[in-house]
Each structure stands twice: as structure tokens, then as C-alpha cells.
Amino acid sequence: MTTTTLAARCFGDGDPLYEAYHDTEWGVPVHGEAELLERIALEGFQSGLSWITVLRKRPAFREVFLDFEPERVAALDEDDVERLLGDARIIRNRQKIEATIGNARAVLALHDGGRTLDELFWSFAPPARELRLGAGDVPASTPESVALAKALKKEGFRFFGPTTAYAAMQACGLVDDHLATCPVVTGAAT
């Protein structure tokens, strides 16, 4: 009798929430102002922490940051910052909270200039997928993520450096860093 063993995921094996995120979201193209603002914010909140920590808190983040609708988030004020600092359901970091509000305001400034976050963000997608054979082949940043971070900083975005930019590019499908042996790549994930 022969048994078939599925290849291990790139990450997330053993935690149903993490597995679902890996299998159905990570690396899938994300478009839309609120959707991209959410990913930028969550990647910023993740800085220095594990992604599963952010993933577990994502429903609360969506609630307190008003589904990341830029107009609503941009309207939050100092009283809201203080309220959020007291909310144990999210990561309570003043700089990250203020950056999220400031980044929503930067999205609105893009709109005032006739541009969208979606257009700007996706303009940094590399031209082709590079096959990753092992975790050591996945970079922490790339020339595209450095350029994206620089462009967003120029537009007023905060707490979004090249490494965070690359993580967002992975999460939003600008790059596909599923390893060659990953069941998502081979179609074996359930």
C-alpha cells in the first residue's frame, strides 16, 4: 500500500486559521483602496511580531479601523487614537495606529491628485515570477519593494519600509513566493 504525503505549506501548517490564510489569500491578487490600505496597515502592525498574531486580531482591526475605508479611517482623531490604545483586541502601538490613520489620509491625497493607491501599488509589480525552491531563496526585500516603499513615503505613507513593502507585495499577489513544492503551487492544498 502506498500513501501519498502532501508537501508542506510555505508556512502555516498545523493552525487552521494560518493554513486557510496561506491556501486562499496569501499571494492572491488584491485590488481596491480599502483592501490595500488594510494590507499595508496589517503588515505595519506585524512589524516585530509574528503574522499569526496579526491574523488572529484581524477581525478586531477591521472593526476598529472601520473596514479600512480610507475616508472613514482618515476622519479618526486623537480621541480615537487614545480609545484604540486602550483596546486590547488589537496591537496597541501609538506609532502604528497613527500611521494607519495618516496612511488613510495619504490615500485621500492620492485621490485628490487623480490617482489611486491601487494604481500606484500595482505599478511596482515585477514582470515575472521567480521560482523559489526553498525558504532561503525568498528575499527580505527587492529593488521593487525598495522603490515601492520610497514612492509611498513620498506620498506621505508611514511605517512602510522595504521589508514591510515586500511582505505586502507577497500578501497582495504582486509576487508569488509560494515555494515550488508548496501544495498551493501543485494544486494539492485542500
TrEMBL record:
The keyword Metal-binding applies. InterPro entries: Adenine_glyco, DNA-3mA_glycosylase, DNA_glycosylase. One of its GO terms (molecular function) is metal ion binding. Keywords: Metal-binding, Zinc. GO terms for biological process: base-excision repair. This is DNA-3-methyladenine glycosylase I. PANTHER family: DNA-3-METHYLADENINE GLYCOSYLASE 1 (PTHR30037), DNA-3-METHYLADENINE GLYCOSYLASE I (PTHR30037:SF4). Zn(2+) binds at C10, H22, H178, C182.
